[in-house]
């Protein structure tokens, strides 16, 4: 999981949405106007909502990336040599390891406490 992959996917989604708009525009130019209205109304609503959703996802990814960088800075994590930033995989891998170890020790301590009682 990399932020660059998410950004690439969002760019592809935006490109596909533009292609969809072009195709819809071609349908509007068809000489038969009798069947255009339900299609046109629905597609205009879809495209407007899709643009809003796509922009919201871009903003959400930007905000998430910013928060992630702030979090890694708070914990004084530095990127590996040759990398420009700490990857989520590395960061959460460390947390997963810590959580697993903590859980194991917690269980052992609970067993000891129960045995002492």
Automatic annotation (TrEMBL):
Pfam families: FH2 (PF02181). InterPro entries: FH2_Formin, FH2_Formin_sf. It comes from the Eukaryota. Residues 1-117 form the FH2 domain. This is FH2 domain-containing protein.
């Amino acid at each position: 999981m990399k932020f660059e992959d998410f950004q690439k996917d969002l760019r592809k989604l935006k490109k596909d949405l533009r292609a969809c708009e072009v195709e819809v525009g071609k349908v509007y130019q068809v000489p038969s106007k009798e069947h255009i209205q339900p299609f046109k109304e629905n597609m205009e609503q879809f495209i407007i909502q899709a643009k809003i959703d796509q922009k919201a996802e871009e903003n959400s990814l930007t905000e998430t990336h910013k928060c992630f960088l702030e979090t890694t800075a708070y914990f004084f994590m530095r990127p590996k040599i040759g990398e420009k930033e700490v990857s989520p995989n590395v960061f959460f891998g460390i947390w997963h390891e810590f959580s697993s170890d903590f859980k194991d020790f917690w269980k052992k301590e609970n067993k000891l406490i129960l045995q002492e009682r």
